Amino acid sequence: MCAKQSRDISLVMTSFYLKIVGIWLAKDRSEECRRKAAIIYTVWVLSFSLYILLSDLYYTWGGDFGELIYVACTIMTVVMVLFKILVLFWQKKKFLELVAYSKKNFWHSNYDCYERMVMNNCSRTCTYFICIFNFFAQSTVISYAIWPIMENIGKNESERLLPFKMHFDLLSMSPYFEMMFVAQVLTAYHIGVGYLCLDNFLCVINLHVASQFRILQYRFVNIHMVKMEGKSKEASDSAPLYHADKCHETFKRCIKQHQALLAYGNKLEEVFAIVVLGQVSLFSLLMCLDGYLILLGELSEARRLIFVIHIAGCMCQLLMFTYSCDCLIRESTRVASAVYSGPWLRLPVNEGGRMLRKDMTFVIMRSRVSCCLRASGFFIVSLETYTSVLSTAVSYFTLLRNY
To answer: Which of 97, 142, 197, 305 has its CA 20 to 30 A from that of 70?
Structure first.
């Protein structure tokens, strides 16, 4: 056995952000109370932010078109976060079951050297994706805080700007302005955490399930590695028959693992199907509006930088979860090839050998239907989804440019 796996950075970051928004496993009653307080605070922050932005949209309506697009883009981001949090809270029980199963069977299991290598590669890929996406998401939040500071340089007290407009005259005066500025920055940070936490988890869990399918392939191919120590001379004379029976027992354990992974994939789809549908549906329009504000919007350079970072984060986010879903499809389908590559040709045709060949046929037939994530039954999420969303965003941008 290889050495114990070191602490996974991607899992630490994912669990930390989910705890901030209030959706994670609670160890005791006090932690459960903190979790409930966190989810209440999250929903309150998102609802109040949406109210402020809708008020700004009301006052902006009929004015500058670029400013209207700016407010609409921000509203869509908050709506997306609120939608994901509410859906996940609605599916909280199933979500926590997924987390508990993963902690027991994926993240704290004993692996041999090859299986440990597969899990380490998975952890490394997850860490790359999580760090890059988190960088863009947090940079977007920081840019929302920096641009009003840059715009306020050289302005008097009555002309100062907040990150998000609030149509109250007293808020431009000290100390109300400073207090509201800090409150809005903290609110933007919390929205940013809600924006990335669920996508982090979905990417991590998809890649871990795909790695479990890869480990299962390895076990199917190597079911003949049955230890024969401790057998008597009489038993060694019937070693081929004994070996076939032991291979069949090992094969049945692999089938149970395959069934468990498929059931896990179905439950994952139940939890995230509506979230994925809403998110993919908004991505095209969101990137279209970002592109308009970057190329055609009459914004200052500081505000334009917000949407340069935001569109880069959206593209990274979309690639992250479409790639992870594509890995899930590919690795679950490759189980059939791994089963066929097993040692079934070399096994004797006794009862164990016949049963193994029969079971192998059923596993190959089942593996032809891949484990995948569907957007509420409308389409299967894969890397093709990434190119389709980008193509749709360009089409929307072409229409908006001619407006």
So the answer is: 197
Alpha carbon separation from 95 to 24, 83, 164, 312 (Å, rounded):
9, 16, 33, 29
Q: Are 315 and 394 in contact (CB under 8 A)?
A: no
When pLDDT is averaged across residues 172-197 and rounded to a whole number, the result is 83
Rounded distance between C-alpha atoms, residue 36 and residue 44, angstroms: 12
Q: What is the pLDDT of residues 311-343, one digit of tens each?
A: 888 888 888 889 999 999 999 899 888 888 877
Q: Which of 189, 165, 145, 206 is nearest to 330 (CA)?
A: 206
What is the pLDDT at residue 225? 66
Bond before 175 cis per omega within 30 degrees: yes
Name the nearest CA neighbour of 169 among 155, 180, 185: 180
Q: What is the distance between the alpha carbons of residues 106 and 10, in angstroms, rounded to a whole number?
A: 14
Find the helix or strand (DSSP H, E) in which 292 lies. helix 239-295
Helix (H) or strand (E) holding 323: helix 301-333
Q: Pick the closest to residue 202 from 284, 317, 79 (CA basis).
A: 317
Q: What is the pLDDT of residue 348?
A: 67
Segment 253-282, tens digit of pLDDT: 888 988 999 999 889 888 888 888 888 888
**Buried-exposed string 148-161: b where 16+ CB fall within 10 A, e elsewhere:** beeebeeeeeeebb
Q: How far apart are CA 217 and CA 214, in angstroms?
A: 5
**67 or 364: which carries more pLDDT confidence?**
364
**CA 240 to CA 380: how far, in whole Å?**
45
What is the crossing angle of helices 176-221 and 29-60, to 10°? 120
The tokens of 291 are what?
């592109």
